[in-house]
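To close the section, here is one more complete example, presented without commentary so you can practise reading it yourself. The ligand is adenosine monophosphate.
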Amino acid sequence: MERELRLEADFAAELEGLYAPWQAAPIPNPQLCLLNEGLAIELGLPLAPLRTEAAALLSGQRPIPGSRPLAQAYAGHQFGVFNPQLGDGRALLLGEWRDPQGRLWDLHLKGSGRTPFSRGGDGKAALGPMLREYVLGEAMHALGIPSTRALAVLRTGEAVQRERPLPGAILARVAASHLRVGTFQYVAIREDEALLRRLCDYAIARHYPELQAEAGGTRYLAFLTAVMERQARLIAQWMGVGFIHGVMNTDNMSIAGETIDYGPCAFLDAYDPATVFSSIDQNGRYAYGEQPRIGQWNLVRLAECLVPLVDADVDHAIAQLTDVLQRFPARYQQAWREIFAAKLGILAVRETDDALLEDFLQLLADEHQDFTLAFRSLAADLQAMPVAERQRLGIPASPASWQPWRERWLQRLGTDRPQSAIGAAMDRVNPIYIPRNHQVEIALAAASEADDWRPLHKLLEVLANPYSARPEYLPYSEPMPGGFGPYRTFCGT
Ligand code: AMP
Ligand code: MG
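Output:
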């Protein structure tokens, strides 16, 4: 028996003062473009009403039972500059869905019209960027990286004015929650300690319930530690697939540890830690190689908010919070090491392996090698893959210049395991298919400009299985052709 589509209003009930009750703007002609039935099934959402009424329900035009739509308030550091009031300027939280395991999931709309937090913006979203968020979120999920996910994309039937008029759209997305570092900053700057405690206890109950047993300041120190752990792991995972978030502002860092807010993000092709795709990131603040440092910077901003909860003695509170924060580099490095060791087939990794891992990346940087395919090339070598097979799959031969490094690596791998087994294990953690920037652009342009949805469906199919190589997916493993670059991404506003 399918359950009824009914939402809870948990955030609305628990965190008054952190939102404005609000409704979606009326739109002329909502039309469903994409419905993520796989996600709906995973969450136990009833398919029948989504199939027939998604356009009205997921555009906020028809109320979902139990829903109390609201725009969330938050602050944030944008490119290092603090803004005390950002908030959902074009988004709404419809409410939370409780899945069959009892977990709550935010059901959230983006592009649903102006709100009290819109500032100068129109509250709208264009179809291309919303499809981009759908594709990239699904890709991240299939790669095994925590992410918010799109449930649906719909057209609104009206045009939104950007550099030129574009088809308007709404994205309905699901997240563990939309609590951000910026949510804490919003409360901290207003010096409302009661609300701060309520927010923090809410975040703990929802995302770190094991910490509820801790009393007093210890609980909030443990909270910072737990958020830090998840961020260290998340950012190390991004690094492992060459993902560049592009706008790691504190309002885009999730307390639950999910990848959130797919704006100008993109994946590395040629390996270079200084890579930036975003047109607005002129100083490279959010470059690939800067992400761990920025992650820590954002966590310092979260720690600053927690001072009054940790200890009445401010100096003492700061000392304890600093203690936690100082563990970030080692924690991140450990996560990074585990991920990159697995990418190179190394078991029981040790700190002394770092040089071997880093030297391989240096080789890729020096030679402008494709980050994704480099690891598949090494694995194909171990499996003695015939040339014809490599060509059918799009896996290049590894260059002779890698030979000195390769000898060190083979030495480290040892002889206990057959090389073919090591290669197969590497293939299970090194994607062959990532959302290649040119493929994403081709699919989005076909859908949003020519109403041809085949390339997008094909791309979603390929990205759903990023680790298993298939000859029929050959074009999707190939790097961006020379004529395409330099690639630039834009904030989806
Ligand atoms: P983002 O960089 O997408 O995370 O957005 C940063 C802030 O700008 C958030 O407060 C958004 O709600 C707001 N914003 C972005 N685009 C628009 C828009 N078209 N209309 C109103 N607010 C927007
Ligand atoms: Mg944002």
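Once you have examined the tokens, check your reading against these statements. The longest strand covers residues 149-161. The chain has a mean pLDDT of 97.
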